[in-house]
Amino acid sequence: MSNATEQTGPVINLIASLEESMLREAVGGIAGEYGPKYMLACADAGEPPVELWDALAEKGYCGVNLPESYGGGGLGMTGLAAVQEELALAGCTQLLLVVSPAIAGSILVSRGSEAQRDQWLPGLAAGTTRIAFAVTESDAGTNTHNLATRARQNAAGGWEISGQKTFISGVEHATHILVVARQELADGTLGLPLLFIIDVNATGLQRDLIPMALRLPDKQWTLFLDGVEVGEERLVGGTEGGMGALFEGLNPERIMAAAGSCGAADRALRTASSYARERKVWRTPIGAHQALAHPLAEAKIELEMARLMTRKASALYDAGYKGAGEASNMAKWAAAEAAVHAVDRAIQTHGGNGLALEYGLTDMWWGARLNKIAPVSREMILNYVAEHSLGLPKSY
Amino acid sequence: MKICCLVKEVPDAAVQKRIDAGTKRLDRSGERTLNPFDTHGIEAAMQIREGGAVAVDEIVAVTMGPDTAVRALHKSVALGADRSLHLSDPALSGSDVCATGYALAKALETEQPDLVLLGQQSDDGECYTIGAVVADHLKMPSLTQVIKMDVSEGKLVCQRQAEYGYDTVEIALPAVISVGDAINEPRYPSLKAIMGAKKKPLDTKGTGDVGIDPSQVGEAGSKTQVLGINPPPPKQSGEIIEDEDTNETVEKIVAWLEERKLI
Ligand SMILES: Cc1cc2nc3c(=O)[nH]c(=O)nc-3n(C[C@H](O)[C@H](O)[C@H](O)COP(=O)(O)OP(=O)(O)OC[C@H]3O[C@@H](n4cnc5c(N)ncnc54)[C@H](O)[C@@H]3O)c2cc1C
After folding, report:
1. Which of A89, A99, A335, B227 is most open to solvent, judged by the fewest CB atoms within 10 Å of its CB?
2. Would you say residue A354 lies in a domain?
3. Rounded to a whole number, what is the distance in Å from the CA of A149 to chain B's nearest CA?
4. Which of A152, A53, A170 is closest to A103 using CA atoms?
5. Where are the alpha helices (DSSP H) in chain B?
């Protein structure tokens, strides 16, 4: 160690503090009262998981990462990730937790004006303001440079936003949406990306439900924005700082995706192990067959490594360290792979029951599989690591 | 009214229980947590406060245990206690139920509570008796396995779970009440309560501070001695009633239940 900064740098807590243990116990306990049955019932009824969200929000668990001065828990992404991991472990992952406190909350904390922080953060911390996040467009896909949603400034200083977004999660439960649009320049071409907070029921905004394989209560929507008007106070990060603000949301998003995958992997492995300890078709429980046991053991190792990387990413992010980007990407990648392997092996362990709806593993499958695609695909993470960690040439 | 809640730090339920062959005591290393039965006592105190029938000035969590037992106190405070008292002294190590009850009673004397609440059993020792021992030393009436409590000025009307049904008992305060887990569903703490727990007052006292006679506590002061430890005998297999004629089967089950005064 060569200097004081290094010696006092971010610490990865390998053993949960008393506060973290109590938080995990409380969140796990609350979620346990709802469980996957409740989530499926909401999904089938086309209703958002309002009761569970409100139960968490009432106790302060929806704004764990946000500063205490705004009514949050002050525990950073380390705390919010623990919440999502426990929810996923209980079969109750909340997509809105990813977009609202993690993405929108983190962006507002670091790039919002004082007035914006005062206006939005208390509601976000309390869970009463819920902000969805809309960046993806069908024609741009992973390439955000190709975004075509445009924002034109009017004479009064406000903005008019037009364009189309796709796969936007949780709009049905959100109060607002953080929309990424590009500034329309005087010559009609598109400039830098800008971030706007629009009302979920704004005039000029329409939405179409996208039928998805996922049986999650949080739905995905295509949004049509046709001249949606907002005042200048709804622009976050100014006309120059949109890209920077957008990037502020990416690491928290990845950490949350990683945490959700870790919880899901854990749930799958616990389900598989308990089944494999009981089910007997020959002389021994099926868990004694190494053909089943070893892949589960491998998945467990992958999970623990992903957990460690998620803790590292959270610790670096909370300390404002540069390495947070690399660690968040790696954590997201590792956790998504671990979850897919764990759920796949859990299905295999269950034989035919693995596909029976009663056992819930098929529902977990699409949730686990999703995280290899969104919020950032495994290929784009590998591109990032190849380029930034290994210095290899960019391919695109 | 001042309520003291006795709480204990116990090995986490997920940890496999093990007896240390050398000391013949429970191996309490590994993950520990607040005795889940005691959380019902704290919740009962909270409900008395919120019920409004009497004014509750203070809820104090009290424990006896090593340094690590502070975690159980922090948790108790997160669940609703206003402050806590930690009785901790190397001299107390190895105390049996009677010695522990005596030591806790001495600590409670310094608080002068109107009501002492505790879980009916601990998740590790499962003695069910601490409440009675404490009450004896404090010269207070005591009830065990209480699953309902109505409080009014100076007295409590309690329902306690008996072998065949429920007893309703009126008891004068101050009293020591050990509660069953059916009494309530402890609430989950809010994040604010969790984060604020370490900021609430915590007094640590040694044997000398509360007037404990050192010869009455610790291994030497304990009246019981563990001579040997054996696993419990295997359970006898239950009675199996074959269902040949359903009417007859029902009669047999009813007779079996009646014999035990279960119906
Ligand atoms: C359930 C769900 C919820 C979502 N929620 C939201 C939300 O709330 N808000 C939001 O804005 N978006 C959301 N999304 C969108 C998600 O972020 C995108 O689907 C994701 O970023 C991938 O973009 P795409 O679907 O356009 O894939 P494409 O960009 O079309 O990519 C297709 C494939 O090509 C690969 N690929 C692309 N470029 C490269 C390259 N250069 N090198 C190697 N491979 C490449 C990708 O990795 C992928 O495998 C959600 C998606 C899903 C499925």
Report:
1. B227
2. yes
3. 39
4. A170
5. 36-51, 70-79, 97-109, 130-138, 191-196, 218-221, 246-259
Closest-CA distance, B187 to chain A, in angstroms, reads: 9
B19 close to B2: Cβ distance less than 8 angstroms: no
Q: Which residue out of A14, A15, A17, A18 would a mutagenesis test of the B interface target, given it has the greatest number of B Cβ atoms within 10 Å?
A: A18
pTM, two decimals, is 0.92
Nearest of A13, A182, A9 to residue A81 by alpha carbon: A13
Task: Using alpha carbons, list the distances in angstroms from residue A260 to A267, A330, B228.
Answer: 11, 14, 48
* Phi-psi group of B101: left, alpha or beta (phi > 0 → left; psi -120 to 50 → alpha; rest → beta): alpha
Mutate which of B191, B192, B198, B199 to disrupt the A interface (most A C-beta within 10 Å)?
Answer: B191
For A190, the 3-state DSSP assignment is strand
Q: Are B191 and A61 an interchain contact pair (Cβ–Cβ within 8 Å)?
A: yes
Last residue of a domain, which of A107, A129, A151? A129
Rounded CA-CA distance A88/A364 in Å is 10
A159 in the same domain as A187: yes
Enumerate the residues of chain B whose CB falls inside 8 A of the CB of residue A18.
71, 74-75, 197-198
Give residue A373's identity as a one-letter amino acid code. Answer: I
Residues A118 and A226 in one domain: no
B199 close contact with A: CB closer than 8 A: no
Interface size between A and B, measured as CB pairs under 8 A? 39
Total number of domains in chain A: 3
Residue A323 DSSP code: T
| Whether A73 and B191 lie within 8 Å, measured CB to CB | yes
Q: Are strands B155-162 and B165-172 parallel, antiparallel or unpaired?
A: antiparallel
DSSP conformational letter for A128: S
Residues 6+ apart with CB under 8 A from A55: A30, A33, A34
CA distance B188 to chain A (A): 5
Low-confidence ranges of chain A (pLDDT < 50): 1-4
End-to-end CA distance of chain B: 40
Cβ of A18 within 8 Å of Cβ of B188? The answer is no
Distance B18 CA to ligand 1 centre (A): 51
Could you read off the pLDDT of A322-378 as tens digits, one per residue?
889 999 999 999 999 999 999 999 999 999 999 999 999 999 999 999 999 999 999
Whether residue A324 has its Cβ less than 6 Å from ligand 1: no
Cβ–Cβ of B191/A64 closer than 8 Å?
yes
- Residue pair A172/A141 in contact by the 8 Å Cβ criterion: no
Whether the CB of A396 sits within 6 Å of ligand 1: yes
Domain that holds residue A315: 249-389
Q: Does the residue A331 lie in any domain?
A: yes
- Ligand 1 centre from A376 Cα, in Å? 6
Q: Report whether residue A73 contacts ligand 1, using a CB cutoff of 6 Å.
A: no
Give residue A207's Cα distance to chain centre.
Answer: 21
Tokens representing B225 are 């001695």
